[in-house]
Amino acid sequence: MARTATGVFLLAFAVSACSAQLNSHGNIPDQEIIDSIRIGKSNRAQISGMLGTPSARATFDQEAWYYIGTRTSKFAFMKKEILERKVLVIRFNKQGIVQKVERLDKQDGRELQVVDRKTPTRGKELTILEQLLGNVGRFGGGAADDGAAGP
């Protein structure tokens, strides 16, 4: 009986250790809060009060706020999988009044390809041996550097 209980416990422990980890990151506002935003009437202060500070702001014109939220799943050592991504974009006019509200999700995004090129630098590349022995003989105790303190 004790062996069976130990075996069941070990099996349950092993299975639970391999379960997926679910993580939420960012700000995913509730739908009813999003529905309470009034185009042409709500301003920046009201939006900030309802949703908090945005995840990002537009780089150039500062007239768009982005609220970004992501839910991911990761199983053991496997690559992280994006289960859900929601982006709420709120665009303001010059007076700070809401002009447009957009909702984007995972299907609206695009995969980016990372470029592995390296920028060349000036000079020559040293081997490890050249780096270790590069300063040997460069410093000598000449007349200018005799170690004696001056007057």
Residue stretches low in confidence (pLDDT < 50, at least 5 long) are none
Q: How far do the termini sit from each other?
A: 92 Å
Alpha-beta classification: alpha+beta
Task: Work out the helix count.
Answer: 4
Walk me through this protein's architecture:
This protein has four helices and five strands. The protein is α+β, with helices and mostly antiparallel strands and 151 residues long. The chain has a domain of 90 residues. Strands 1, 2, 3, 4 and 5 form a five-stranded antiparallel sheet that branches. Strand 2 and strand 3 form a beta hairpin. It is flat. It starts with a helix and ends in an 18-residue tail after the last helix.
Break the fold down into its secondary structure elements and pairings:
Elements lengths: L1 H16 L3 E6 L4 H5 L8 H8 L4 E2 L6 E11 L6 E12 L5 E8 L22 H6 L18
Antiparallel strand pairs: 1-3, 2-3, 3-4, 4-5
Quick recap:
The chain has 151 residues and is α+β, with helices and mostly antiparallel strands.
Attribute tags:
151 residues; alpha+beta; 5-stranded antiparallel sheet; 5 strands
